[in-house]
Amino acid sequence: MIEQLKEIIKKSKLSEEDKKFWEERIKNMPEEMIPVLEILFQSSEKNITLVTELTKEKIAAAGDPEKLEKILKKEKELLQKALE
């Protein structure tokens, strides 16, 4: 599954910087997340971009609980729509 996810990312329209971002994240990612990302990323190029942006925003907001809470709420809503 990891190789399939890597291939989806490689073929995506993400910038090289974002592709490297995911390459690093996948190395340390819990196994349970791999199939979730694979499903999301396979369904739409928009989802790849969206999840990339949200993940970067969460990292940037790590020291600000209020900001992080807003991002997580936004992420939950968007992911629910994406999986419908």
Strand content: under 5%
Order of helices and strands: HHHHH
The tally of helices reads 5
Main sheet makeup: none
Average pLDDT for all residues: 90
How many strands appear in the DSSP assignment? 0
Helix content bin: over 70%
Question: What is the CA-based Rg, rounded?
Answer: 13 Å
Residue ranges: pLDDT <50 for 5 or more in a row?
none
Number of domains: 1
Distance between the termini: 22 Å
Name the overall outline: globular
Q: Which structural class do the helices and strands define?
A: mainly alpha
What does this structure look like?
- The protein has one domain.
- It is built from 5 helices and no strands.
- It is mainly alpha-helical and 84 residues long.
- The model has no long low-confidence stretch (mean pLDDT 90).
- It has helices at residues 2-11, 16-28, 33-43, 45-60, 65-83.
- 82% of the residues lie in helices and 0% in strands.
Question: What characteristics describe this protein?
Answer:
5 helices, 84 residues, mainly alpha
Quick overview:
This protein is mainly α and 84 residues long. It has helices spanning 2-11, 16-28, 33-43, 45-60, 65-83. It has one domain (2-83).
